[in-house]
Amino acid sequence: MRFDEAYSGNVFIKSHPNYEESEAVLYGMPMDWTVSFRPGSRFGPARIREVSIGLEEYSPYLDRELEEVKFFDAGDIPLPFGNPQKSIDIIESYIDGLLEDGKFPLGMGGEHLVSWPVIKAMYKKYPDMAVIHMDAHTDLREDYEGEPLSHAAIIRKAADLIGPKNVYSFGIRSGLKEEFEWAKEQGMHISKFEVLEPLKEVLPKLAGRPVYVTIDIDVLDPAHAPGTGTVDCGGITSKELLASIHAIAGSDIKVVGCDLVEVAPVYDPSEQTANTASKLIREMILGWVQKK
Amino acid sequence: MRFDEAYSGNVFIKSHPNYEESEAVLYGMPMDWTVSFRPGSRFGPARIREVSIGLEEYSPYLDRELEEVKFFDAGDIPLPFGNPQKSIDIIESYIDGLLEDGKFPLGMGGEHLVSWPVIKAMYKKYPDMAVIHMDAHTDLREDYEGEPLSHAAIIRKAADLIGPKNVYSFGIRSGLKEEFEWAKEQGMHISKFEVLEPLKEVLPKLAGRPVYVTIDIDVLDPAHAPGTGTVDCGGITSKELLASIHAIAGSDIKVVGCDLVEVAPVYDPSEQTANTASKLIREMILGWVQKK
Amino acid sequence: MRFDEAYSGNVFIKSHPNYEESEAVLYGMPMDWTVSFRPGSRFGPARIREVSIGLEEYSPYLDRELEEVKFFDAGDIPLPFGNPQKSIDIIESYIDGLLEDGKFPLGMGGEHLVSWPVIKAMYKKYPDMAVIHMDAHTDLREDYEGEPLSHAAIIRKAADLIGPKNVYSFGIRSGLKEEFEWAKEQGMHISKFEVLEPLKEVLPKLAGRPVYVTIDIDVLDPAHAPGTGTVDCGGITSKELLASIHAIAGSDIKVVGCDLVEVAPVYDPSEQTANTASKLIREMILGWVQKK
Amino acid sequence: MRFDEAYSGNVFIKSHPNYEESEAVLYGMPMDWTVSFRPGSRFGPARIREVSIGLEEYSPYLDRELEEVKFFDAGDIPLPFGNPQKSIDIIESYIDGLLEDGKFPLGMGGEHLVSWPVIKAMYKKYPDMAVIHMDAHTDLREDYEGEPLSHAAIIRKAADLIGPKNVYSFGIRSGLKEEFEWAKEQGMHISKFEVLEPLKEVLPKLAGRPVYVTIDIDVLDPAHAPGTGTVDCGGITSKELLASIHAIAGSDIKVVGCDLVEVAPVYDPSEQTANTASKLIREMILGWVQKK
Amino acid sequence: MRFDEAYSGNVFIKSHPNYEESEAVLYGMPMDWTVSFRPGSRFGPARIREVSIGLEEYSPYLDRELEEVKFFDAGDIPLPFGNPQKSIDIIESYIDGLLEDGKFPLGMGGEHLVSWPVIKAMYKKYPDMAVIHMDAHTDLREDYEGEPLSHAAIIRKAADLIGPKNVYSFGIRSGLKEEFEWAKEQGMHISKFEVLEPLKEVLPKLAGRPVYVTIDIDVLDPAHAPGTGTVDCGGITSKELLASIHAIAGSDIKVVGCDLVEVAPVYDPSEQTANTASKLIREMILGWVQKK
Amino acid sequence: MRFDEAYSGNVFIKSHPNYEESEAVLYGMPMDWTVSFRPGSRFGPARIREVSIGLEEYSPYLDRELEEVKFFDAGDIPLPFGNPQKSIDIIESYIDGLLEDGKFPLGMGGEHLVSWPVIKAMYKKYPDMAVIHMDAHTDLREDYEGEPLSHAAIIRKAADLIGPKNVYSFGIRSGLKEEFEWAKEQGMHISKFEVLEPLKEVLPKLAGRPVYVTIDIDVLDPAHAPGTGTVDCGGITSKELLASIHAIAGSDIKVVGCDLVEVAPVYDPSEQTANTASKLIREMILGWVQKK
């Protein structure tokens, strides 16, 4: 009997065993300490990996198989419970490392605030970067009840850093009046309610540019993603979200990194949300990584 | 340390603290004793209030904020368990009081039978009133296995009272053959399966008239509202229901009262249904109350 | 007090009390031992029956009532736990018996492998038979990790038996690359992602032919059927599936038998999936049995 | 293929097919319309039957097998939703019929109020009857918020009918101060908190007398029966309740009828409560019916 | 119709409407951002209040009724999401206020770290104070993976402040080896596994002293409290915990404040844990407040 | 950034990274295809590992830490779905390998049938071996409805192989009359209902002998382990089961291998059962492995 290496049980299906040889790195950011409503997204990445065994390795949408892309599942980044600032610093430094090694970062949240340090790190490498943001919520607050480090402020921080005109939000159906007004004044793109059609209009404008894509699973209607912190009805279907991922894959933009956040398994006993997230991750790997 | 008044914990977000100054009154009718299948809607109003803290106060659909409408959350009307007749009498007298005080009544069920005493009270004040009814079920029975006071008979009672031609049902996909036939014979409007398109055709005909709107949450597909007594597939999406609420808001009818019924939280561990109901209530407040 | 016969508690609503007089027979095949992901569909048939009491007996889609069709609910076929081969043999012989008696077989799974012995039996009687297959998955494997008797191989077995050109798959969104290629090479029809529109194109080609229809509940999006073994997002709505059933009912094909499989109640605490399945069964009875 | 009689799916394991030959009759009373907290016990009897297939037919406690007792599962008594008085009348007349036919009545609730008509019927036949009552709650109210027909009043009604000194309550840990005082004044037996030890003291005093035993499943600690309307911690274990049933079986009292009430499956996703209830029913059948 | 004050929906049953006149104040501390395993206790206080309507107002254990004690339910203290230090400061200042007003503080968590600022505030007023601690876990860490503000460090902080010899822990069954050793070296009392018997021995030694009692609901076995962050089998029963509360009530110590923490409703669909917590709160009010 | 080896995410807490150096091997046997009631134990091992992060590494019962024992978590043995015979053969050969390498086997089920091939392998090495068996069920059937390979036959097979007098069953509360009789005739030890006290009597008789211990989690009362296939009330507490493990640890028997089976996570939304199982595994590692 031979066990040449430690059992690697809970990895995303078909992840590559070797970091060095991989083009992309999949990692979890198990943080949920600033959420204002229902916590639990810290367990999102582990559950997404666990249910990925129910996936086929082949995408009939893209006609590609997972073994055509070398991605390494690096597990979850250990983050200090209840300390947002230190968590953010750890993530930023982690992404710095990935980018130094030339890897495509593919993150799984965790609350949406985890995208903030990733975007900071990406921006250092890609100063002409744009951000595509799919979400039910604007996330454009300056702070949340006094806390500047909040999941509800992530896109505002990104907009302040890379310029509001470089941020494109889709599917938004919730936010403060002030947030919508701020976006309008700043010339930031917000598509309310819809994703696919406005995205198709925006993509040609971004042709050739490096783009980071951040998807909050709650852009889906709660019917399609009940397992998340803040459900908000009137969202898009998983069919539309898949089509949006494929629209990006078929466009001329250069995806340089991406994440999928806010899967909170405990609110979804059927595990529909984690299963859906795992399929979205597969399509993001197959559709976006090769763009690099 | 100062507590000037008792803690009022579980109220709908942004409800007004003062009854006298309010234009609308939000109240729960926690009754489910005549339901024929799965009980539990008595806990609907409390759960809808509880999750309303996850809502934003601003509607990007209507571009209005909750503080623009003064509504008072009066809590649940205490109803005697297992006594439908007395419950109905209590509700009717409660609504009589609200109308006397010039308030817009906005009720949360509870089973659909609770709409019956409300409609009775409204009709006394608005004898030219019409009823718009969104539901999966006809609710046109004369009785249910011998019981005339049944959630399955509420629309029949309303039709008998205000005249079948003044009742407009939408989204219906379940009922006895006799119920559909009775409606046809009586000239009552029933739109099978769909809501938004037929509603848009009906609204101009009702221009200027006082209308009471009653929404059974099961008009939504179970994917969008699993937490209800009798789920029935093939329903509309929450997007379509939101659009229907907005169509009414943008029409020339005069909404004089409304309710949302049949949210039964125990059948929905993800609380999607209660969250959706709380958003619908927000839109009903923002879109309909000012019509008064 | 008189009890002339044993209490027959959990039967499908309005099932006929007498086998001899019935045109159709409804039976459960409570087998889930070869499933590769989440087991539990053995309890599907019982739960579908149980919630059928929440159904109306009348279909406003087809304008027919259940009492217009005589169907006998024969309960579940007792199957030996963990023995796929013997289970298959028992089912085949059971169906042989039904066909001898001139009955229309209407089966409820259980895992999809249960359709294999039914198709074998049907084919003996209807050698010119075609199969219409609605599913998220191709099910065209030759074996699953070495096991030829697998829920993932059922359509391959059927295709091998009746000829790939006689099998029409709809709604497929998951499978191995090899499976899609095999189908293409063999001239087997696969409609990816969609059901209703391609079905409408296919039906005229099958006019007059005997057709067996097998529906895997996971052809529905997980939003509409979370209670199944392998959920896969991007599926169709229950509205589209109902319309597809009605399209078949309105066509010139001759449905000679059918099944609905893979309802696994434990993954759906709201029981949406079982309720939906019971409505689908009602429409299949009302729409298809009279074709015989 | 032969089906000599209709499929009788959901019956309690090993129930006898023939009413006439049976000594005992098992029946459900699916009523929950007067409950003051969480409804749902109407589905108790069906779920208890369903999970009874997980039971062995042999009791290692009593060294008896179910086939040694002929009991007929008569299904659920159809009761009118939301009408307590009519429901009670129907049950009383049903029990009258059973007693006329010389059957031992074994009822499954439903809310506790269902025991009231049974006790009325029993008392007509056994005027020297005592009642043994195991429950978390006194159930000694005269009315509940004005309603005399309430699950919280059942034991008071029984005590008023057969005399408080003939009622023996065990395991009580919840009630109004007035209820405890009334019991004391009237000389009614109440054992607070405990069941087995005080029961052993009481049983000899009841030797030779006909006794009706009513068990509210909430006498168990919520750890052992989470699936009930009103859980109340500090209760007994299922081991102690089994031992109490066996103590009665081994005593010299003459059990003439019994019930087990308040199983509400929806609050117990693990179905522990229904499984436990089905085992308790088995022991009640094996231990008590032969006393007749 | 008159509504003299705002609807106060979700308050603990029989709470007094007036702060000034009350002897005790019940408040929630909805914080869970430092938990290392499963978050969700922020929703504990609201759910405990909600289910308290299922309680009787009378305790048959203590023969007292809630109206004999004036306690004011002050609702939840608003705490900044994800900021432990600021949360702690807010709580401490809140308790300072209560103590100034001469109130008995009765807190509901939230994670166990919330007890830390309460103890700090209490100690300023009662420098000879002891702490009684019931818990599955030692909570004696200096930090948790580098974070000194952690739910796993609360008792260590308390011991460092008031002296380890003034802290008495009961029911402990989980911790680092170092924690147990530290306690031993410091002369701190730890009763492993058991609560009631060792408590009875300790109470006389504390006679006359002011004591703060902090109960982590996970001192209960998971069978009795599944709805908590870190379940750990081998715990005590709710019967033993009730008896321990009553033992304190009957002793000569002077309880000056108390809390019950770590109820996390989402992990307990049956709501057994919240129901149990609400009964424990009732007994703490009835048994301990009058000691003041 | 350095990743020297693949991420090994879901391993039991503190498992040793190296197979060669380890004394014990922990492995999962994810098979549930012969279960007669509720399937799902295939997911037991993965969930037990996942929740093990909530465990402390130190046992205050045994005063030992996990790092004192080198155990290697080898993951789950891949088993062919629906093929019991092949699954058994694979397991037996796997254990043969472990024993050849001198490892202590510690298995996690899966259904109880998985213990059969382990015992076969162990017996080849330890022909004087005894089996200690803790379970709610006898598991002494010769076959289950004709299937000799059944979870209900595992102990019978073991008894036939090693001799009934070498098998000691504890906690049994369910089985056929014939099973109990067979055990009696054969001189096999069965302690009904209880575990700890009879175990203490048996242990001295087994002093010095190699013993394999197999624990079915359903020996616990459903209150302590709701997440299993066949719950059966009247069982022991987790406290008693822990004490039984410790009694074996403190005895003079030589545990040569062991397993814990039948954890089925889907039936336990609170994950109490998996958490309890992970603690039991920790105690088995700390208490039993060093006996080797």
TrEMBL record, chains A, B, C, D, E, F:
Binding of Mn(2+), residues: H112, D135, H137, D139, D216, D218
> Which segment of the chain is annotated as a signal peptide?
none
| The protein's Enzyme Commission number | 3.5.3.11
EC supergroup of this enzyme = hydrolase
- Does this entry carry the keyword Kinase? no
* Family, similarity comment: Belongs to the arginase family. Agmatinase subfamily.
Q: What is this protein called?
A: Agmatinase
